[in-house]
């Protein structure tokens, strides 16, 4: 019996290891290609290890385009991602608190509408949103990429935080009311500390989604100096002339570092926020 268990565990870990390697192979290939000469990236595509390691792709890519360094694109991405994430988490927490703790007419209908909004493809809303933002004069600025997120437009985070709050005993609210605490005080002093895992989870997902968002920036940002990283990477590919794939892979490698670091440092909160709800016994 012990030998069978050992064999099963060994087979299981081998299968998981192979699947893991297959999943991260494109990422490894991209990182390795960033150290290859531009002329050998695709001619030696079957070879993972570069014949000659070079780091000039990173310096070339960091210089950017038209006197705009890639540092500017990183600053733009950080600004958009941070502002949108703050707006998303703050507004989603407030709306989730209302759904989880208050009783009002039409609550079930509004909650159902919120769930339905999660099922709508983004492409369905693309044209109406663009026309709306154009009438507001927001096209060509960061407004469409940041302001709407202060109004809880992402139902997933509202649903996530609302479920987390629903798992917290209502006796805490009642005790706070007896002590003279207002609804705002209950939210800031009691709820926010208790739903920290859910808030961190929302921060991680929101930041990564905004950091990787290519389509929204393509629609609303026109000036190259305002490009985020996701949009600036395409500048390395020029169909009319030669493309600098080495520099593109180098900058793409740097662009994934924030997401990787955030996941590594906040993995504990990410798992806790998804797998638990409310207080632990």
TrEMBL record:
Gene Ontology terms: biological process: transmembrane transport
Annotated ABC transmembrane type-1 domain residues: 74-266
Source superkingdom: Bacteria
Keyword Transport: yes
Keyword annotations: Cell membrane, Membrane, Transmembrane, Transmembrane helix, Transport
Residue ranges of the TM segments: 12-32, 78-97, 109-127, 147-165, 186-209, 245-266
UniProt membrane topology term: Multi-pass membrane protein
Stored CDD domains: TM_PBP2
Family: Belongs to the binding-protein-dependent transport system permease family.
Protein name: Binding-protein-dependent transport systems inner membrane component
Protein species of origin: Enterocloster clostridioformis
Name of encoding gene: malG_2
């Amino acid at each position: 019996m012990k030998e069978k268990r050992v064999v099963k565990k060994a087979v299981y870990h081998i299968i998981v290891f192979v699947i893991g390697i297959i999943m991260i192979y494109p990422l490894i290939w991209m990182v390795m290609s960033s150290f290859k000469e531009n002329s050998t990236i695709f001619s030696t595509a079957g070879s993972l290890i570069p014949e000659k390691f070079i780091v000039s792709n990173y310096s070339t890519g960091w210089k950017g385009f038209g006197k705009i360094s890639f540092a500017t694109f990183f600053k733009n991405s950080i600004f958009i991602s941070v502002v949108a994430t703050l707006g998303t988490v703050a507004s989603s927490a407030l709306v989730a608190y209302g759904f989880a703790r208050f009783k009002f007419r039409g609550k079930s209908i509004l909650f159902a509408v919120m769930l339905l909004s999660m099922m709508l493809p983004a492409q369905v809303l693309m044209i109406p949103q663009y026309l709306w933002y154009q009438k507001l004069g927001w096209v060509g600025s960061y407004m469409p990429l940041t302001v709407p997120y202060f109004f809880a437009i992402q139902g997933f985070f509202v649903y996530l935080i609302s479920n987390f709050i629903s798992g917290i005993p209502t006796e805490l609210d009642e005790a706070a009311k007896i002590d003279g605490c207002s609804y705002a005080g209950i939210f800031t002093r009691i709820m926010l500390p208790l739903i920290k895992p859910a808030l961190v989870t929302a921060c991680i997902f929101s930041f990564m989604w905004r950091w990787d968002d290519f389509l929204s920036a393509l629609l609303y940002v026109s000036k190259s100096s305002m490009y985020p990283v996701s949009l600036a990477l395409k500048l390395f590919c020029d169909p009319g002339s030669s493309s600098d794939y080495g520099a593109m892979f180098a900058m793409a490698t740097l662009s994934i570092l924030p997401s990787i670091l955030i996941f590594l440092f906040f993995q504990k909160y990410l798992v806790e926020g998804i797998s638990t709800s409310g207080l632990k016994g």
